[in-house]
Amino acid sequence: MLYHELRLLLVAIQFLTRLPVPALTHYQPDWLHQSSRYFPAVGLLVGGLCAALYWLASLWFTPLVAAVVSTAFGIRLTGAFHEDGLADTCDGLGGGLTRESALTIMKDSRLGTFGTLGLVLALLLKVSLLASMPAGLAVAALIIGHGGSRLACISLIALLPYGGDLDHAKAKPMAQQLTPGQGLIGALWLLLPLLLACYWLPQFSPLQWLLPLGLGLLVTDHMRRLLKRRLGGYTGDGLGATQQLCELACYAGIAAQLPL
Question: Is the CB of residue 92 less than 8 Å from the CB of residue 237?
């Protein structure tokens, strides 16, 4: 049992990042669906690595440089997996008037005007928000933002049917819906970093974390309704867009409570 869970964690790391993992023998497609409960854990891993680099960079450079370096490192770690989803979703929902036309645009590998604007604005906002925080708070924001935003993604898998073309889905097992138990396991991954942040950052009270978490929930619900209305359910690109927007919502909720 423990070996299988470790194997699922490695599948999640392999799917969401470019980090090297040991070869998985006797791989079964259903493992990818089962591994989704570890997506928040992978988010914590990515966020932790980005946070470590942010802290190191902040020792020698300005907060703005540290924010740019850590953001670029996060993109390298994930192969721009979620950023690509954000750009494709902006192109599809911005340029497609019908479900069919939106999905066709989202399958196109070329980057359009809506995707370019959405991606550039998201990156600018992400860097600006991180640079506005004290180093310790930015470190906590990166870890919780990355972990919580992956939790938002699996909540959409649990709440929505698959809205794309199932016959041409890049990862068909992900089109299966999650069970409540799998979603609960994913949520528990976020509890430890929140408790640690409350302990190590007494200047940012536990109640203040309610705003970034609340904004993340609002963004997730907005994406749930938007994807259901426009596409009939979630897609891989829609999940990537949700991750990016929830991460931004977390940073915005923290930065909004800091003195100007």
Answer: yes
DSSP-derived letter for residue 246 is H
**β-strand partners of 162:** 234
CA angle 213/175/194 to nearest 5° reads: 20
Angle at 139 between CA 256 and CA 186, to 5 degrees: 90
Bridge partner list, 234: 162
Tokens of 103: 């999905």
- The DSSP symbol for 166 reads G
- The encoded tokens of residue 115 equal 């995707």
* CA 106 – CA 85 distance, rounded (Å): 9
- State how far the alpha carbon of 205 is from the alpha carbons of 170, 223, 258, in Å: 42, 29, 12
Which amino acid is residue 75, in one-letter code? I
Determine the Cα–Cα distance for residues 86 and 119; give it in Å rounded to an integer. Answer: 7
Q: What is the pLDDT of residues 116-157, one digit of tens each?
A: 999 999 999 999 999 999 999 999 999 999 999 999 998 898
